[in-house]
Design a protein that fits this description.
Blueprint lengths: L16 H11 L16 E5 L6 E7 L12 E2 L1 H11 L2 E13 L10 E13 L1 H4 L21 E4 L2 E4 L4
């Protein structure tokens, strides 16, 4: 024996594409037009925020005649290149050193390095700002104004380790 019953929908609203588009539009936040969150319409990027359903906007600094960008603006490669040209940065060769062999059972300090690996590298800058500062090694004559290399101090006119306790 079979029992049949009537099935009813919970709602009797007939839906159509127009109805769905309208109702979804009421419930879903839409992305606003450019410039809504910024004073630079058309020159912004949408970003995430900490609030669900809310977007942020960041300006883009891309005008070659603009001397300074606003804080938080994203910079285009072209704009960055223009700013570098204005600074008149020059390629400068510097030497990077890394100790590759130490005195056995000794602290890894400059004074205990037996073999340095020297590698030239090119950096961009203003030479006066990136010129390496030379320092004096253990045993070299020094004065108050002379910089001794890492861990050394000028004691009695010579760069030495400060072993005072």
């Amino acid at each position: 024996m079979a029992i049949a019953g009537n099935a009813y929908a919970v709602t009797s609203t007939v839906t159509s594409k127009d109805y769905v588009d309208t109702e979804v539009g009421k419930k879903q936040n839409t992305i606003p037009v450019s410039g809504t969150n910024s004073s630079t319409p058309g020159n912004t990027v949408i970003t995430y925020t900490d609030i669900a359903g809310t977007i942020g906007e960041r300006g883009i600094c891309n005008d070659p005649d603009e001397d300074y960008c606003n804080d938080g603006d994203l910079v285009t490669v072209n704009q960055l290149g223009e700013q570098i040209k204005r600074l008149d940065l020059q390629p400068i060769t510097t030497t990077n050193r890394t100790c590759t062999e130490w005195v056995a059972n000794a602290a890894h300090t400059d004074a205990n390095c037996l073999l340095w690996n020297l590698v030239d590298q090119t950096v961009w800058g203003i030479e006066e700002l990136v010129a390496p500062i030379s320092c004096l090694v253990e045993g070299e004559s020094c004065s108050i104004d002379s910089p001794c290399c890492g861990g050394l101090v000028c004691i009695n006119g010579k760069c030495d380790y400060n072993n005072a306790t």
